[in-house]
Design brief:
Layout lengths: L3 E6 L8 E6 L2 E8 L2 E6 L13 E3 L2 E3 L6 E3 L5 E3 L8 E2 L1 E4 L2 E5 L1
Antiparallel strand pairs: 1-11, 2-3, 3-4, 4-9, 5-6, 6-7, 7-8, 10-11
């Protein structure tokens, strides 16, 4: 059964930035887009690169390896070469704690 687990605090991830965390045997990236925290698989579905090192523009994440793009709200591929979407995780913020459903 999935449950919410504390991964970080809000000051760990400034606006417009991302950070990867290892939790429950998974690498998950948390992004801060104007105070909205979003969580998704850290690994690009194309070349296995860490997406936390990519470029964030609003909800569009560009992988630094080959320029593939994802919508971090839906996980949808916006531009190739990624062959499949990202796994997305539910996030809630309680006080200054960021919790992700894993």
């Amino acid at each position: 059964m999935a449950e919410f687990t504390k991964i970080a605090i809000t000051t760990d991830i400034p606006n417009g930035k991302m950070k990867a965390f290892s939790i429950g045997g998974k690498l998950i990236t948390i992004a801060n887009t104007d105070g909205e925290y979003l969580a998704f698989d850290d690994t690009c579905t194309h070349a296995q690169c860490s997406l936390a090192g990519g470029f964030l523009d609003g909800y569009t994440l560009t992988c630094y390896c080959h320029g593939g793009q994802y919508d971090i709200k839906s996980g949808e591929v916006l531009a190739p070469p990624p062959p499949s979407p990202l796994g997305i995780y539910n996030v809630k913020v309680e006080g200054d704690e960021i919790l992700v459903e894993i």
